[in-house]
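Task: fold both queries, return C-alpha cells.
Query 1:
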Amino acid sequence: MSTLTRQLSGTHETLRTYCRRVEIPLLGEVAVPPPDKVTYYAGLGVLAALQVIEWPLALVITAGHLLADQHMSGLVKGVGEALESA
C-alpha cells in the first residue's frame, strides 16, 4: 500500500467517523464526535465542575479541540472568513 493510498484511507475513515449526525431543534443538524472525544469533553466538564481547573480554561481547551477536530468541515473556514471581515 502506497503512502498516498494510506493517507486517503485514513481520510475516508475520519469522514466515516464524523458521519453520525443528530438533529437539534435550535441548531439544526450537528455532527456527533466519536465516543472517545465525548469522554474527553465530559472529563473536562467534570474537572471544571470539581474546580480542579477553572471553567474558562475548560471552555478554551474544548473550543480548541473542537476546532481542530472539525478541520475537514467548512466551519473553521467560515469562522476565519467572518473574523477577517470584521
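Query 1 returned. Query 2:
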Amino acid sequence: MKMSRISGLYRLSASDRLKIVAENSGLSGDEVEAMKTGGITLDQADKMVENVLGLFAVPLGVATNFVIDGREVLIPMATEEPSVIAAASNGARMAIAGGGFVTSTTQPVMRALIQVTGVEDPYGARQAILARAEEIAGRANERDPMLVSHGGGVVGLEAEVVASKRGPMVVVHLLVDCRDAMGANAVNTMAEALAPFIEEITGGRVYLRIISNLADLRIARARAVFLAEEIGGPEVVDAIVMASALAEVDPYRAATHNKGIMNGVTAVTMATGNDTRAIEAGAHSYAARGGAYRSLSVYEKNRDGDLVGSIELPAAVGTVGGATRVHPGARANLKVMGIICADDLGRVLASVGLAQNFAALRALATEGIQRGHMSLHARNVAVQAGAIGDEIESVASKMAAERRINVDRAKELLRDGR
C-alpha cells in the first residue's frame, strides 16, 4: 500500500529520499533517472520550444502526509521558493486527524470563444446561432472524432450580445468536454473550423476564436476539518476564521491569500507538465468573477469548535497530450501520485492548495510567516556564502536565531567556525 506519511524524510539525503519514493511508487530505473535529472534532454527541449539554448532546472521535492478521499498520496512539487513543500506537508499532516481532504469535481468542460462583429441585428443573430446549435455542435465534433470516441466533445452552446466600445458583438461559447486533456488544442481547432459557418449564419465577421482560460465549468473542490487541539487551540481557530473573513472582502488581502494557495497549485502543475499560466489565469479570474477580487478558500468554525476549510478553483489540467506525455519527468511525477486521469489531478490540486493556504494562515495566526520561511531561506544564504556539508545547517541556524540572514553575516560565521 502506498504511504504518504514518511517520518524524517527531510533529514535524509536527496538520493535516499528518491530511493524511498521510488520504492513506494514502483518507479522504474528510467523514471527515477527522469526525476533526478529533470527528465528532458537538450534535443527534446529543442523540439518543444523555439530558439533553445539549454535547460533551466527548478528544484523538485515531494510533499508528504496527504490523505485525499481516503487515499494516501505523495505529491511531487516543482518550486524555487523555500518553505512551500514543508508547509504543504505540515498542513496535510494536521488535516489527518479530521479525516484528510474530501474532494469533488465537475465534468472537464472548457469553453471555446468565438467573437462575431459587424452584425446589423445582434440579437437576431444570437437567436439564429442558438436555433442551429445542434448543427454547430455536429460540425465541431467532426473536427475531433478521437475525443468524441472517448466520450468527449461538444456538450452545449451559449451565445450572448456583449456591449463594447466598438459596438455590440455576439460572443459564442462552445462548451466542450475535453476528457483527460487540458483541451486547448481541441477547442481551438473546433472554434477555428466553425468561424466560416458562424459568419454564414450571422452575416458578421469572426475575429477571435480561441479557448477561454476562465474554466468556470471545470471546477475542483476540497474540504478538510482541522481539529482545534491539533492546530493550537480555539484561539488559533478564531484567528484563522478572522483572517479568512478579511480575504473574502478585501482584494489587497485576497491577492496574498490566493498567492499562497497558488504556491502549492502551481508547483504541482509544473511538476506534471501542465500549463501553469493557464492555471494561474483561471484561478485569479475565477476569484474575480463576481466583479470584485475575492479569496478562493473559506474557513469556518463548526459546532465542535474545530476549523473547517474549503476551496473551489478551476482545474484545467490534463494527463494526455502536450508536455504531460512528452516530458519523462512529468510522467514519473504522475505515477508517484497514482494519477489515472485529469479528474484525479484536479482533486490533488485543490487539496494541495487548501493545505498550503491553511499552513500559511496558521503561521500568521501563531509564530508569524517569517520564522519558518526565513529558517529555510537561511540555508540558501549559507550556501551562497560558501558553506558546505554540516556547515550549512550550523550557519543557517545561527543566522535564524539572530534574525540576521544575509551573506555577509554567513561569511563571518564561516570564518569564526573554521
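Both queries returned. Flag for query 2: The chain has a mean pLDDT of 94.
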